[in-house]
Amino acid sequence: MEKVGASLAFGFFFLVTLAAASRKILQIENCLSPGVRLYKNNHRMVMDNGLVQVTLSSPTGDVTGIQYHGINNALETKNREGNRGYWDVVWNEPGNRITYDRLKGTDFKVIMEDEDQVELSFTKTWNFTNGSSSAPLNVDKRFHFMAISDDRQRIMPMPRDRLNGQRLAYPEAVLLTDPTNPQLKGEVDDKYQYSCDNKNNRVHGWISHDPPVGFWMITPSDEFRAGGPIKQDLTSHVGPTVLSMFTSTHYSGKDLNTKYRNGKPWKKVVGPVFVYLNSISSLEDPTKTLWEDAKDQMSIETKSWPYSFPQSEDFPSSDKRGSVDGQLLVDDKYISDGLMWASYAYVGLAAPGGVGSWQTDAKVYQFWTEANEEGHFSIENIRVGHYNLYAWVPGIVGDCRYDAIINIQPGDDIKLGVLVYEPPRNGPTLWEIGIPDRTAAEFFVPDPDPSLVNKLYINKSTDKFRQYGLWERYTDLYPEHDLVYTIGVSNYPQHWFFAQVTRNMGNHTYQATTWQIKFEIENIVRTGNYTLQLALASATASELQVRINDKRAKRPHFTTGLIGRDNAIARHGIYGLYWFYSINVPSHLLCRGNNTIYLTQPRCTSPFQGIMYDYIRLEGPPETG
Ligand SMILES: *[C@@H]1O[C@H](CO)[C@@H](O)[C@H](O)[C@H]1NC(C)=O
Ligand SMILES: *[C@@H]1O[C@H](CO)[C@@H](O)[C@H](O)[C@H]1NC(C)=O
Ligand SMILES: *[C@@H]1O[C@H](CO)[C@@H](O)[C@H](O)[C@H]1NC(C)=O
Ligand SMILES: *[C@@H]1O[C@H](CO)[C@@H](O)[C@H](O)[C@H]1NC(C)=O
Ligand SMILES: *[C@@H]1O[C@H](CO)[C@@H](O)[C@H](O)[C@H]1NC(C)=O
Ligand SMILES: CC(=O)N[C@H]1CO[C@H](CO)[C@@H](O)[C@@H]1O
């Protein structure tokens, strides 16, 4: 492959200190002699390194122009200047309505200006804020082709195709009935179909074929993103829009809202994120070449983290951070007599809190890694602070937390040695459904309604769940009677629907559903209790009631109560937040021979309500001796 023509980089460094003030820092580095220059002209600041020219409004700090490789302005010039490249937050005072703020700067300062680096700072003192519309960075319409990962790339529709299309039941989804590009006719467009886990969301963006230019959002670290490595969020979508999401309630709901109250100060650096433009001579295949080059650049940026260039004491360099390492093992005598490696466990430091609390924390930095096959892990470049160490192990149920508080000081290299996780377990496995991996991906995901497809996910096994309207397929498959799963006969990839949703009865009415698990027990052990281990992968305004051998029992044997706002069903996720329950089942509730567990989700006012299961296991009483 030919080397990419001219590649260049400029960093956006967004920093917010909400308690007192907000600050955005934009910075450009030298790529060519004669170096970086800064032109000041009334309300405009132009940073120029000979390859790219970035224009900013002063003192508001919006990016109003990016000139590159023959494109006079890569941003949407039809939008007014404040609506091209900006940073926004959504917030509200307790009890007040939700407010939208573009964080417009009121003061401006040149932090650094020499031929190698120009760094500008736009600050704003906290005050009541002013509402507006939605959606961050916009890019010129010449960018048609969007790439999120190796196998999630496609030609995208235009904004007006959405306006001309038919809005579907979930407002962000549109059926393209009259698109500019006739090949897209009949497809569904929905920005949530392009969501991505934080841990995989390192580079995404757009390609223009004429001229052949790529525009990329590179995020070298997850440390400042909310909710940990498997929090999902938006990437790029029709506009063309490129987002860098720092925090949101997507796939988590209000459980992840951050609250700042009672004058308690809070400070967090979000970013720097890296905006990368690349170009090639038009003889090459731009799609492949520009994407591969963007991935290479992403690896370079990831290795350069934490950046040394930010001129801010709030962004510590590598030598002012610490590291932690150790080995995680699993102790479950009903799986193995000896200790097992926590193979490929996710291990992370996050704010001190309860087991699993990291998945709803947005205030504090998080530092995660994946252990190797033997459970060895090493987390580097951790900011100074107090943390708990959390983990979960693919294939093992539950959440793990190391109880001691870990205090990181500059230069610390903390060796934790061997840590042992004892997952929830009371007795031998009688049966299990699913794989404990915090997702419903292993269950039955139906084909979409043929009139509501996104072709990107047709004929793909991994991303099938990203199609629109799969919740409706439950009613098609189970028009009258709910799902019945028989242990030893049914198999979960085919017979366990990925979400327990409501049944659509027409005329905007929905019906509660009750699923059954049928199983035989040859001999009841009366000397101890049985346990139902229940892990949920998602819940939206739902309640799960468990009844044992008595479908009509007025009071369920167990209920979760009303839980969940993650909205993963409507947003085509295969998981949201994780919920775990260990349910005591006294032996007198079970009988010799056939038994049935009834799982009822009684809340049924919307088609998007429901739960996803991660894993269910029935355990016998503890074995003695
Ligand atoms: C906050 O905004 C209000 C109205 O825009 C203004 O009157 C007031 O002076 C501002 N306060 C500060 C501290 O800037
Ligand atoms: C999916 O596969 C079928 C059978 O191989 C093929 O006919 C169809 O064109 C494919 N659809 C897409 C969108 O790739
Ligand atoms: C639909 O519901 C409305 C309000 O409950 C009712 O007036 C109407 O008759 C229903 N239509 C059908 C076809 O059931
Ligand atoms: C078994 O369950 C009953 C409640 O139904 C409880 O009182 C008892 O303590 C349990 N026994 C054990 C050994 O957990
Ligand atoms: C359990 O139910 C199955 C049919 O669902 C039946 O064939 C079997 O005989 C039953 N077992 C007992 C012990 O009743
Ligand atoms: C701090 C700030 O942006 N204040 C603005 C809020 O809205 C009023 C009226 O729309 C403006 O006059 C303020 O400048």
Automatic annotation (TrEMBL):
Its main location: secreted. Gene3D superfamilies: 2.70.98.10, Carboxypeptidase-like, regulatory domain, Galactose-binding domain-like. It is found in: Secreted. Residues 344-415, 429-618 form the Rhamnogalacturonan lyase domain. GO terms for biological process: carbohydrate metabolic process. It comes from the Eukaryota. Its EC number is 4.2.2.23. It catalyses: Endotype eliminative cleavage of L-alpha-rhamnopyranosyl-(1->4)-alpha-D-galactopyranosyluronic acid bonds of rhamnogalacturonan I domains in ramified hairy regions of pectin leaving L-rhamnopyranose at the reducing end and 4-deoxy-4,5-unsaturated D-galactopyranosyluronic acid at the non-reducing end. One of its GO terms (cellular component) is extracellular region. This is rhamnogalacturonan endolyase. PANTHER family: RHAMNOGALACTURONAN ENDOLYASE, RHAMNOGALACTURONATE LYASE FAMILY PROTEIN. The lineage of its organism: Eukaryota, Viridiplantae, Streptophyta, Embryophyta, Tracheophyta. Belongs to the polysaccharide lyase 4 family. It comes from Dovyalis caffra. Residues 1-21 form the signal peptide. Keywords: Lyase, Secreted, Signal. One of its GO terms (molecular function) is carbohydrate binding. It is an enzyme of class 4 (lyase).
